[in-house]
Structures are given as C-alpha cells and as structure tokens.
Amino acid sequence: MQLTINHQISRHAIKLYNHFMHDSLRRNSTFLLLSTGTSALLGFIFWSIAAHKYSPSDIGIVTALIGVASFIIGLSQLGYVNGLIRYMSDFRHKNHIINTVFSIVGVIAIVSSVIFIAISRYVFPKADFINQGVIPMLSFITYILSNAYGGILDGLFVAFRSTQLTFIRNISASLSKILAILIIGGGLIGLFYSITLAALFGALIGLYFLWKEFKYMPSRKLSKEVRTMSKFSLVNYLSSGTANLVVALIPILIIWKIGASDAAFYYIAYSIVTILNFIPNSVSQSFFSESSNDENSFRVHLNKSIILILVLLIPSAIIVLIFGKYILLIFGKEYSENALTCLRLLTLTSVLGTVNYLGDNILNIQKRLRMYTFTNIFCAVTTIIFMYPLLRYGLTGVGLGWLLSEIATAIIYLYIFRSKIFTKRIFS
Question: Any idea what the Cα angle at residue 201 is, between residues 200 and 202, rounded to 5°?
C-alpha cells in the first residue's frame, strides 16, 4: 500500500516537472525570478556587510554613483535589450547581429564613461574619487562596460529562452561581489572596486555561455540587419533613458536636499523593493518573449502572467509591509529608524507597478511605440513633479512621490486598454 502511494506521488511529481519544463513561459519566468531572488538575497548580504563596514554617508555617495552609472549604462545599450528579445528569432545571421550590437554598445559605453569622468568634479563633486588616478578611472569604465554587456547578454538569453544562463551568470556575479568586499578595503574606492570586479566577472561568465551554448564567436563581421530593430530599439532607448535618468537623479537630489546618509537609507529601502519589482518585471519579460514568438497565444500568456505575478507578489508585499522593520535591522538600527516609512510606501508602489510592467510589454508586442514612449516619459516626469516639492518631508516625501506617480501612470494604462484588455481584439 505504501509503495503504491509513493509510486503515485513520484508519478505526479514527474508529470508536474515535465509540464513545467515544457511550458517555456513558466520555466523562463521561474529562472528569472530565481535569478533575481537569489541575487537579491546575496545583495542583502553584501550591503549588510557594507553597512557595518562603511558609514551611511559613504554608502550614500557610492549608491548615488551607482545610480548615475545605471543611467549611462541604459544610454549605452540603445534599447537593444528589448530589441533583441523582440526580433532575435527573425534574424538569420545571429552571430553578426550580436557582434554589431556589442560593437555599438561598447563604443558608446567607453565614450560616455570618459565624458562623465571628465565632468564629475563639476556635476557630482562627492564622487570625484573616481577621478583620482588611472586605476579608479579604469574601474569606472570597466563597471559601465561590464554592466552594459551584462544587460545585452541577459536580453539574448531571454530571447533564446535560456534564462537558466541568466540565473547562473547573476549568481556568480553576486557571490564574487561578497568575496570582493570581504577582501578589499580602502574606503569609498574599495567599495566601488568590489562591485566593479563582480560586474566584470558576471560579464565574462555570460560571454562564456554565449560561446559555449550558442557557438558565438567574436569577429569583425557586422550586420546591416540590425537596422530592422533600430526604430523599435531607439524608442525603448528613449523611454528607458528617461526612466534611468529619474533613478539616477533621485539619490543625488536626496544628497543635495536631505543628506548623504539619507541617500543610503533610501537606497537600501529601494533595493528591497527592487526584489519585489523583479517579480512583475521577470514574468512580464518572459511574457514579452513568448508573445513575440507566438502572437496567436497572446491572451493565454497574458492570463498566465497575471496569475503568476499576483500569486508571487501579493504575499511577498505583505511580508515586507509587516516585517519591514526587522528586514531593515539587518543593515543596522539607523536604517530601520529612518527608512521604514519609505520602504512601506515603495512596497505599495511595487504592487501598483504590475499594471505598468504588463502595459509596457503589451505596447511593445503591439509595436505601439509612440504610446509606449509617452507612458514612460509621463511616468518619469510625474515622478519628479510629485517628488520634488515633497522632499521637505524627507524620505517619506520620496516614497509618496513614487507612489503618486505610479498611480497616475496605472490610470493612464487602464484608460489605454479600457476596451481591449477584456476582449480578443488586443491587436486591433
């Protein structure tokens, strides 16, 4: 009798596993979620070590620099991450496309990094430590280039429906970052060296997988086929650029208006909520990839994505709302005392952001590029408009600014899809 029960359990488990492995949307979404979830956990460990090793002021300056770097990285990628996901299956000479994208992104990343280094002492004096010698300069350029290539690699793995490689790449980078911070000292620059080495290691791992699994070989051969996705990519470039600009500006505004320590408190709260944001982001990105390859199954993929996001995000958000104080205590008492209200407001923002993540990808699938650009610029502009006057209330004002902007953008998306989202005329 017991053997029969065990046999039935094993059979059902195998059936469930096979069903999971043959459903590429669930499989790729799960690997993306595992990647972000594990990376976030390791990120917690990294920043908790940093919080006990460096002052909040030092962490605030470095995290603000990371925000600026993220903006440069987004600009360098020219929107090709989404372009590759949307069009890679249409290209015949994939190796030439990858070479072309890497060449363009690499040149822009290096030039943009050099320009920022040259003007850093004027636009961001507190980050002038990257301008004090050849090694700090090379470190900043390496950080930008490695992360720019890392994003392209992740986009390629999503396009190839091999997100398990993204999982391995990001975990490797996160582990190396923890190892680096334990070994490297040297104040602000030492902290930045740690994250630079991790970014470089992650990019090299990704390039190895691209060569091993997809037979990629660097060459001088470039492709004019890249023009096929140029308009689509440039629209995504403009939209992501405005979003990245806001993310980069907020820590700097906090340093100017409130203080460097508050920038650190904000960054930790924002990092925690980024984990929640990766749930709708990862699922909607897989939804984008699947629907781009099979538009006839759009509604099936959409329904699966909505259910998966709600099942994962709502319980996670409730946990953060209830236990946020204790999560922040991992980084220190100062973080728990100063960032809790902001964390809770950002958590509510994350839940509302589900509408916006799915809305972005629906518009991309439909190739409604003007509307996609409008909604993203609208979100970026309203974030600053709402947030700036609320900075007088400290980090609570920052959280409120994000929340109000997300509500306004969600209303825009619901209005756009008011007649189509519940019908089969989604592509009309």
Answer: 90
